[in-house]
Automatic annotation (TrEMBL):
It comes from the Bacteria. CDD domains: TPP_TK. This is Transketolase, N-terminal subunit. The lineage of its organism: Bacteria, Bacillati, Bacillota, Clostridia, Eubacteriales. Its EC number is 2.2.1.1. It is an enzyme of class 2 (transferase). The keyword Transferase applies. Its cofactor is thiamine diphosphate. It comes from Ruminiclostridium cellobioparum subsp. termitidis CT1112. Residues 17-255 form the Transketolase N-terminal domain. PANTHER family: TRANSKETOLASE N-TERMINAL SECTION-RELATED. Keywords: Thiamine pyrophosphate, Transferase.
Length: 286
């Protein structure tokens, strides 16, 4: 994997974070912690891995993506906007009545959203159904789903995990955005599911692990997916809550953020500096 590709993907992720900040500026608040922890994975899926076409978002042979932890939707919106699925002006409607960008993803409002999510624990079940449906049609498409580690306490996740293994749904890849925190504190204190890898292996899944905020590691892993060995695949993505928000990284208080004007201006300025640096680096390696 070339340095230019990795740097370009880092730049796309930084611009997607800037899009999230633009939405927070418009709406005044949002679930930034989880959005920023998983945005590198979602960027890599949309800009590198998935077979998609923003000009033809419903093409039959496309790969599918579901964000099970729907409250992290600003990450998906930010990436979709950067990928060209909709005009970035729409970002400025976040938090407004009748916006195409509601607080949880809505497939009836926005191109690129494959399912309505946000009731935690449902995304993996939806992904199983999609993957089975694609397989029954003889499609080679893959279904990708991002879950939060905090939502694993919902029992429907484990019913879906059992069903996916039983039905050999090898065209299903699930990522757990394991940032270790949820709204009430540490996930290990609230409902501990460690060792997470052994639990999914016991259900009959392939299990892989990655630093979910390291783009080079993410791409190396995605080059191996899907494994196509008769099993679904679970990727444990170790991430940092609010990654990229200097004042909030790894802090539970930034699960949901209502910044002051000064705080938001500071973070926007920092993000712009990162983008400028990455743009300069891309030019140097071209």
């Amino acid at each position: 994997m070339g340095d230019k590709t990795i740097t370009n993907l880092k730049l796309c992720a930084a611009k997607s974070r800037r899009n999230v900040l633009r939405m927070i500026q418009a709406g005044g608040c949002g679930h930034i912690g989880g959005a920023f922890s998983c945005i590198d994975i979602i960027t890599a899926l949309y800009f590198y891995k998935m077979n998609i076409d923003p000009a033809n978002p419903k093409k039959p042979d496309r790969d599918r993506f579901l964000l099970s932890a729907g409250h992290k939707c600003m990450a998906q919106y930010g990436v979709l906007a950067e990928r060209g699925f909709f005009d970035k002006k729409i970002l400025d409607t976040y938090g407004k009545l009748n916006s195409k960008l509601p607080g949880h993803p809505d497939m009836h409002k926005l191109n690129g959203v494959e399912g309505n999510t946000g009731a935690l624990g449902h995304g993996l079940s939806l992904a199983c159904g999609m993957a089975l449906g694609l397989r029954s049609r003889g499609s080679d498409s893959t279904v990708y789903v991002v879950m939060g580690d905090g939502e694993l306490a919902e029992g429907s996740n484990w019913e879906a995990a059992a069903a996916a293994a039983h039905h050999n749904i090898e065209n299903l890849v699930a990522f757990v955005d394991k940032n270790g925190l949820q709204i009430s504190g540490k996930t290990s204190d609230i409902m501990n599911f460690e060792p997470l890898d052994k639990r999914f292996e016991a259900f009959g899944w392939n299990v892989m692990e990655v630093d979910g905020n390291d783009m080079e590691q993410i791409i190396e892993l995605m080059d191996r997916l899907p494994l196509k060995n008769g099993k679904p695949t679970l990727v444990v993505a170790n991430t940092v809550k609010a990654k990229g928000l200097s004042m909030g990284e790894g802090k539970v208080a930034y699960h949901y953020w209502k910044p002051s004007k000064e705080e938001l201006e500071t973070v926007i300025r920092e993000t712009e500096e990162i983008i400028h640096h990455l743009e300069s680096t891309v030019k140097e390696v071209s």
